[in-house]
Hints:
This protein is mainly beta. The chain is 4% helix and 37% strand. It has 4 helices and 39 strands. The strands form 10 sheets. The chain has a 7-stranded mixed sheet, with no helix packed on it. Strands 13-16-27-21-20-19 form a 6-stranded antiparallel sheet. A hairpin with a 2-residue loop joins strand 35 (451-453) and strand 36. The longest helix is centred in the first third of the chain and has 6 residues, at 159-164. The radius of gyration is 26 Å and the shape is globular. The N and C termini lie far apart (72 Å).
Amino acid sequence: KGFSNDITGINARFDTPCGLAIWNGKVLVADSQNRRIRVVEMDGSTWTLAGNGASGRKDGLLLQSSFIEPLSVVTTETGEIYIADRNSVRVIGQRLFPFVETFSGGRTGFADGKIRSAKFNRNSGIASDSNGNIYVSDSENQLVRVISANRETGTEMSQKRFDEIQTTAKEFRGISPGRWTFDPPARTREIAATFGEIRGEMDGSDPDVRFHNGLDIVGGYGEKARFIRDEKVLRPTAVQLFDTTRESLVLPTLGYVHIRLGRDVNGIPFEDKRFLFNFDSEGKATGVRVARGSKFKSGEVIGTLNTFNHVHLIAGRARREMNALNALLLPGVADSRLPTIQNITLFDEKWREIETGDKNSRIELSGNTRIVVEAFDQMDGNADRRKLGIYRLGYQILNKDEDPVAGFEKTRWTIRFSTLPEPGAVKLVFADGSKSGATGETIFRYIVSNEIDGKIARENFFDASKLKKGKYMIRVFAADFFGNVVSKDIEFDKK
Length: 495
């Protein structure tokens, strides 16, 4: 393992080479973790064709370009070299001078259609045919895609059709009996964080602010964590962030995070040959990988908890994560506690807070209004200090007699966390001041006037200008996954 070129070939080193192709009598190698395309001559000498080793999707001259995770490479009859690089297809040879460029993809997701706007989700294989078609194994989307030379190959799939063929939470639950990530398997554990919560701080300066994509299940430091169902490793780089607090193992439909993989609380490897360790000269483990094709059974030990003292359990494929409370049958999990709405704040379009003129007057609304709700949930077995995210939020507009106004006969549920929204939607869900995770303080301020549900993510407002003059109230609702609902009112006048 490592990186070095060598004109003799004897001392050349690679790190997880994943794809091979023949090119002008030589062998091209997609050296995935070194993020390079390497060349091995027939005499064994080795050199780098493209990639500077940095992580990124940078187009440019061969040795100035960069890759994220090149897993496969193919050559065509006309001399181009195509590379499957995480969520994109890269190409060398379409210009008069040596250059790497992104041919298709880049943003994670799914989209057929024009080459430049197509989206992929972790490409793992690539091939070509004599007609100029390029075939891509789009692993996390579970599709074989074709970049068609003449549009006579393949069928363009709509987003609606793509969504229809995805595994549902009900189907996911039926894969195997439920169990917790610790032994005994049916002993109920505390849930420390739920799906869709903010991680980081929404203040405009945190580049890592994101959605929490799993379920945090509390255990003790050094406690053994276990697989919750049978599964096989399919990624060549399934282990991530070794020897950090976010060390993880990613399987096709489940992810396990915050675990010392394959070793005890002291870092000593278990006698499990599926975990392949690298060691330094003093015998200390410096890395681990799990070979593609390795199989694990439900209840087998995955490793021990690190200082985070919980397993972050992810249900669903990458970028198609599901709410684990719905996707998994965890024995004994329950929630009889109502969510808490702490405060409702109103803003205009420019995020200026709308307040009353004095303590004896009422809020006046006249146009587009943002509704921000500070709220949290708790579950049975939670410590009182624990604040969990809300599963569903919405609002209604009522007149002074508390009758719904036209268009609000039913609660308008605007935010729902059954599946994970797109990463960029975190700024549409959480208002400034929201924070949790390493900050040590948990505040959830939801922008309830926006609309977030799966692929739907859009800014919206309550338009008070459509109301007749009079006295009204906004009734905000917060619901947890188990159906507990709470509401809170804020009164206003339409002048």
